[in-house]
Design brief:
Blueprint (H helix, E strand, L loop, with lengths): L2 H9 L9 H10 L1 E5 L4 E3 L7 E7 L2 E7 L2 E8 L4 E2 L1 H6 L6 E4 L3 E7 H10 L1 H28 L1
Antiparallel strand pairs: 1-8, 2-7, 3-6, 3-8, 4-5, 4-7
Helix pairs in contact: 1-2, 4-5
């Protein structure tokens, strides 16, 4: 895939719509396009948070290890960002992310991701909104499971 095609793909992602093309070109150049087959793991709970992943195509499941085995928290599709929480918190991965279907992702190195947030506050705000939404969804799931018991 050419750099221009990569930039074109990134422009479609809501998170990067406001970023100027020259910066997207740098992001595309410094990031790695990775393909996962269904069942392959992007990263596992407890791993070092060394990169964020932007899902370009396919779906990925987010799960936690529970007392009775893995608990699925979410199923994410195209344009979803995963792995940013560990980078932002400077903590090991809090969940495991596995390809549900064949998936193509953009692996954004930790340093590049942090630089993007520093240079483009609107990306930081979009990431915070997404994290707040996920927290709210998790709270609702917890409330439902507690009421069901």
């Amino acid at each position: 895939m050419t750099l221009d095609t990569e930039v074109s793909s990134l422009k479609q992602v809501p998170l990067f719509r406001e970023v100027e093309p020259s910066r997207l070109k740098l992001l595309a150049f410094t990031s790695e396009r990775v393909h996962f087959e269904a069942g392959q793991t992007f990263f596992a709970q407890g791993d070092e948070a060394d990169a964020a992943y932007l899902i370009l195509e396919g779906e990925a499941a987010v799960s936690l290890e529970g007392p009775q085995g893995p608990v699925r928290l979410a199923l994410l599709g195209a344009d979803a960002l995963v792995g940013e929480m560990g980078i932002l918190a400077d903590q090991p991965r809090s969940a495991t992310v596995t390809a549900e279907t064949a998936a193509t992702v953009l692996r954004i190195d930790r340093g590049v991701f942090l630089e993007l947030l520093a240079q483009f506050p609107q990306i930081g705000i979009a990431v915070m909104r997404e994290l707040a939404l996920r927290l709210e969804q998790t709270n609702q799931q917890l409330a439902r499971s507690t009421n069901a018991q």
